[in-house]
Amino acid sequence: MSNEIDYRQAVFGAHWALSRGDRNLGGIRLDRALGALAQEPTVQDGSILEAGCGVGRFTAPLAASLPGARMAALDLSAAALAQATRRATRPYYNVGDALALPFATGAFDALVFFDLLEHLVRPGTALAEFARVLRPGGVLHGYIPCEGQPPTLHWLLRRWVHRWTARHAGHLAHMRHTQVTAMVEAAGFEVVGLSYSYHLFGQILDVATFAVREMVFRRQESGSDRPKTYYDRSALSNGALQRAYGPARWAAEAVTYAEARLLNWCPWALGLHLTARRTRQS
Q1: Is 63 a domain residue?
Q2: What angle do CA 56, 237, 256 make, to 5 degrees?
Q3: Residue 107 per-residue DSSP state
Q4: How far apart are CA 187 and CA 278, in angstroms?
Q5: What is the tens place of the pLDDT at every residue in 19-44?
Q6: pTM above the 0.90 mark?
Q7: Number of domains in the chain
Q8: What is the phi/psi pair of residue 179, to 5°?
């Protein structure tokens, strides 16, 4: 399968709105990011960058929760940023590449990212850029799904699941927790906090979702090695399935939310929430 992805046209997160207090895994990511930023008082009225913001699913509630901060957000996709601007206008949105950020050295007090590194062929290059644009002592917080982490289902079933996540979500890097922390430290950061999500039930939900998408994709016989859009929702075109999907997903997300809250300390998880401080020039 081709690894070439046109991120200049890709739109991620278009179907998922998010608000602070949501009891789902998106809400977990948002809460932990805000908790990390709250540890640094200067961030509350400082400058914050979200890298790889997509349609602003996290950008809008971050900006709403930090009204005194100067919020900027960046994505490679102008199409995604057009949707982001419709969601919230206060953040300053920029078209740009995480591998070559269009900002001055030391321009930000904090930088956040969600579901970004796994899309990159060179995640270490992006982390070095994050270090460059953060001031000394600046806060980095990110969420990374680590599909190479044993003993997760994504690792146990990697022969199939890694192919599915590449095809349907553009995941190129299937990392372990230790690989991520090593890259972060090599880029010039000190890791100061780790927590986890997507434990057993979260992994079952995620693998099942990608399995359904793969099944539908194969039935379409489109002649392409990728769906037309990432997270393609054509599986829900059937009316009965669509009616059942909402309540079923709500119940599943309630369970995975509770699981992530209770087991935030347990590293037997797909999701890594990492907080670090910039320590030196990269």
Answers
A1: yes
A2: 55
A3: -
A4: 9
A5: 999 999 999 999 999 999 999 989 99
A6: yes
A7: 1
A8: -65, -40
